[in-house]
Specification:
Blueprint: E1 3-4, E2 15-20, E3 35-41, E4 49-51, E5 53-57, E6 62-67, H1 69-73, E7 81-87, E8 93-98
Parallel strand pairs: 1-8
Antiparallel strand pairs: 2-6, 3-4, 3-7, 5-6, 7-8
Length: 99
């Protein structure tokens, strides 16, 4: 199940937020073989998406989402939805963060 978190991105600024992925026992998940993708949209059916950069710090379970100031400057103000999905080496996709 994905962690739900509301985020605020100020237009024209550099944005970054991080989470640590843990299993049901609270142990950090080793994400060394994972890739990540994250984007936000005005609503979930919108064709226009803004991509986050996703950095994964392998055995620490740390996932960082970021956008540079140029990207955030081009986003119209308002409410959006977003999610972050991780894909393991067997192509299993898991949503770890949404809001």
């Amino acid at each position: 199940m994905a962690t739900k978190a509301n985020i605020v991105i100020d237009q024209g600024t550099t944005f970054s937020t991080s989470i640590t992925v843990t299993d049901s026992d609270g142990d950090v998940v080793n994400l060394s073989s994972y890739t990540g993708a994250a984007q936000m949209r005005k609503h979930y059916t919108s064709n226009t998406a803004h991509d986050f950069t996703v950095d994964i710090t392998g055995n620490t379970g740390l996932v960082t989402l970021s956008m540079n100031a140029t990207t955030t400057a081009n986003i119209t103000s308002g409410r959006y939805v977003y999610d972050c999905e991780l894909t393991d080496s067997t192509n299993t996709v898991s949503r770890v963060l949404e809001g």
